[in-house]
Design a protein that fits this description.
Distance between the termini: 124 Å
CATH topology of the largest domain: hpI Integrase, Chain A
Helix content: 40-55%
Shape: elongated
Strand content: 5-15%
CATH superfamily of the largest domain: Intergrase catalytic core
Number of helices: 34
Length: 772
């Protein structure tokens, strides 16, 4: 056995590993000598090694410098079970390398990556077409082996599809490759991944081949970067790469991967003056707003630049703006339509040409104010105007603004609650990729239905966010105590949009669902909370990733609507995650025993009660009940009994002036036809139209059998309503004001001799159904 062959012998998996072939033992000059060229020419077709090859034969001695490394490499390979065919393929591969040396008149030591790729071909079919008639497709795998071990070939992405696992097994040994795969597989399954074994093997073998070592400790960040670059051009390598990279980082071999990048970054600003675009980019690089908000501001500022180019081409820099320029921009925003001054209109579709909404107009002006305020405060430009005043939102636009929490109708919300409480395995969303565990989906569903929190806060809940109390005493998590029925479930909310972390009570059903998920949740690595900058254990995380905040909108709500048999939109628009927050707040505010505004503020986590007022909407039912209890109609209108003398009407006596209507005052009857216009109707002055019940006329009237009894509504004045509501004192004041007011008979109460105090006449209340 040669020195190179002995160097190829490797220890077991637990021992040290070395490169199978010691390249320093060979003469690696690329140019061929005349003797070598002659030897290759003389051998001709005999270069097909399995036809008469004899290493000691005189004809092969001139090319011994080329044969020795190829033979040593072939001897160092880890053979599979089909040894006979594999050895034949390996000999044929040696013949192909030598034939290409003869064609190129150079040794393989001097070949470039592309030279090797041309010999290997892009795929098995391309390889067979290059060597028609006598070559087998299995030979290609061994040409790749020689290229990898002897030629330093690393352009694996240039040769199309090939069995990476087989190449890694032959070069590194199957035991070592399987050990590396097993380590990564253990981390991924521990995180909750349902691993595709073939895909994992392909990616890990590519990673080891790029590292040129089966030992994970030999991996570097450069290798992982190269792997990501290869994955960008090879879809077979892209699947699961992010998780594998994180697993390798968790094992301590490389740095954690960067967050998955969405898109290729912001578009280059076009259609504006170069000076304006440069200032926009400078502001974008300096601002401390969140990346998403900065991107939105950048888009609006780019639109301002295109407006300047069209309307004020002489203004190309922020320092050139004046109050007149600001006024012009405010007016332009007020008249702007969708699609004006945009860089691309394809995504706008049918909305192009429609006026901007008041909310969008206000946002455009807010962006301009923030931009100029920052530029002035950072002393980039002189302070020539006050952005708050010069770019303020006009009153006409402000009048159209205001929070609009879109409460979901009670009947639809009840169906969504029922669907969430009765989820079955067949109901769970199953996207094309890997779905989440059923326990996680149920927990996040009930959190949305019961917690009243924003989707971002739900996605950022921490592990162990549920606590229990009974009679104000905490119930320890490791306690054997059975939870009482009236145990209080507390939910810890992380730092959020408008304030710091806080704790709120929630329904025990939610706490039980979260504890069920925590019991089966796979261990996850700590992840970055971008809002706080902390490494935390997220509750809703699996496969080493946090559930996205958009998952509720994209999967949970469609699932519940499908289960409940309701559409995903109503008259107020799409059913979104935030609408549950306003719906729950409204129901708590309109409950039989409602929360106060300040209690609801604490429960929602608002900074001020003004924000809570936008959510605490009174329902129509609550308003109707309050209106009914206020007794508006009963307070302003009373009913009095009227007796109609039918004989007087039929006989025509009523037409001659004989009384035919008698208004029952309790103590007597009023025969004045226009009783509702009499100022003394509530405290009768007993004028000539009055007939006491004790008089003979009153007794004869009650004795008639042809009377028709009716009820008439009498509207009350403010003084009369006060007399009804406040009693005798108000009545006495009414009498004093009416003492000199003429009665229908023409005389005043003072002339008739009515006392200054009296009793309010009985009036039948419609709402009470009895005499008041």
């Amino acid at each position: 056995m040669s020195a190179s062959t002995s160097a190829a012998t490797t220890a077991d998996v637990d021992g040290a590993w070395s490169w199978p072939v010691d390249l320093d033992h060979y003469d690696r000059h690329g140019m061929l000598t005349d003797l070598e060229l002659g030897g290759l020419s003389d051998l001709g077709s005999s270069l097909l090694r399995r036809h008469g090859y004899a290493a000691d034969a005189a004809g092969w001695q001139p090319i011994r410098r080329l044969l020795r490394p190829l033979d040593d490499t072939r001897a160092a390979l880890r053979w599979g079970p089909d040894t006979r065919h594999q050895r034949r393929f390996a000999l044929d591969a040696v013949g192909l390398v030598l034939l290409r040396c003869a064609e190129r008149r150079t040794g393989f030591w001097g070949w470039s990556t592309q030279d090797w790729a041309d010999l290997i071909g892009v795929g098995a079919e391309n390889f067979r077409q290059s060597w028609p008639g006598w070559i087998d497709a299995g030979v290609r795998a061994y040409v790749i082996v020689y290229a990898y071990l002897l030629g330093g070939f690393s352009g694996l992405h240039l040769i199309g599809r090939f069995h990476r696992s087989s190449l890694a097994w032959r070069v590194f040994g199957r035991e070592r490759v399987d050990d590396a795969i097993h380590q990564i597989h253990g981390v991924l399954t521990g995180w909750g991944y349902r691993v595709d074994e073939q895909q994992l093997s392909t990616v890990v073998c590519q990673m080891l081949l790029l590292s040129r070592s089966p030992v994970l400790d030999d991996l570097t960040d450069e290798v992982m970067l190269r792997l990501r670059q290869d994955a960008a051009t090879g879809p077979r390598l892209a699947g699961g790469l992010y998780g594998i990279h994180r697993a390798v980082a968790t094992l301590g071999h490389v740095a954690a991967p960067p967050a998955p990048k969405v898109g290729s970054g912001p578009m280059v600003i076009e259609g504006t003056a170069s000076g304006w675009a440069a200032w926009v980019e400078r502001w974008h690089a300096t601002s401390t707003l969140t990346p998403t908000v900065r991107g939105i501001y950048r888009t609006v500022l780019s639109k301002i630049g295109r407006w300047l180019a069209a309307e004020h081409p002489d203004i190309t820099l922020p320092a050139q703006w004046t109050r007149q320029t600001c006024a012009s921009w405010v007016a332009a925003v007020d008249r702007m339509n969708v699609g004006d001054y945009v860089q691309q209109q394809a995504h706008l579709r049918a909305r192009v040409g429609k006026p901007l909404t008041a909310k969008t107009k206000s946002a455009y002006l807010r962006v301009a104010r923030a931009f100029f305020r920052d530029c002035q405060e950072w002393e980039w430009i002189p302070r020539r105007f006050d952005p708050s005043a010069a770019l303020g939102t006009p009153r006409s636009i402000k009048a159209l603004l205001g929070p609009d929490p879109r409460v979901i109708a009670d009947d639809i919300w009840a169906k969504l609650l029922w669907a969430g409480l009765n989820l079955e395995p067949a109901d769970l969303p199953s996207p094309a990729g890997q779905s989440y565990p059923a326990e996680l989906i149920r927990a996040i569903t009930l959190t949305w239905l019961f917690s009243g929190q924003r989707s971002d806060e739900i996605a950022r809940l921490r592990l162990g966010c549920i606590r229990w109390q009974h009679d104000g005493t905490p119930i320890l998590g490791d306690s054997d105590e059975v939870l009482a029925r009236d145990a209080v479930c507390l939910l810890d909310i992380p730092t959020h949009k408008t304030g710091i972390a806080f704790t709120k009570p929630v329904d025990p059903l939610l706490g039980q669902a979260i504890e069920t998920w925590q019991a089966v949740r796979p261990h996850q690595p700590a992840m970055l909370d971008r809002k706080t900058g902390e490494q935390v254990d997220f509750l809703f995380a699996t496969r080493a990733r946090r559930v996205a905040k958009h998952y509720i909108n994209n999967a949970i709500i469609p699932m519940l609507c499908r289960k409940a048999g309701v559409p995903t939109a109503d008259v107020r628009g799409n059913i979104t995650s935030h609408r549950a927050r306003s719906t729950i707040a409204s129901q708590l505010y309109n409950a039989k025993e409602p929360m106060t505004l300040f209690e609801l503020q604490e429960w929602l986590g608002h900074r001020s009660p003004e924000a809570t007022q936008h959510y605490a909407k009174l329902t129509p039912n609550t308003l109707a009940r309050a209106y009914r209890e206020a007794g508006y109609f009963a307070r302003n209108v009373r009913t009095i009994e009227v007796l109609v003398d039918r004989d007087a009407v039929i006989s025509g006596a009523a037409a001659t002036g004989q009384p035919w209507q008698y208004y029952d005052l309790g103590h007597g009857y009023c025969t004045y036809t226009f009783f509702e216009q009499c100022p003394h109707r509530m405290a009768c002055a007993r004028c000539d139209f009055y007939a006491p019940k004790t008089s003979s006329k009153g007794q004869l009237l009650e004795a008639k059998d042809n009377l028709q009894r009716m009820l008439a509504n009498i509207p009350l004045t403010d003084d009369e309503r006060a007399a009804v509501d406040d009693g005798q004192a108000a009545l006495d004041q009414l009498l004093e004001r009416l003492v000199d007011v003429p009665t229908p008979a023409g005389t005043t109460p003072r002339e008739i001799g009515v006392p200054t105090t009296a009793t309010l006449l009985p009036i039948i209340s419609v709402t009470q159904g009895k005499q008041d």
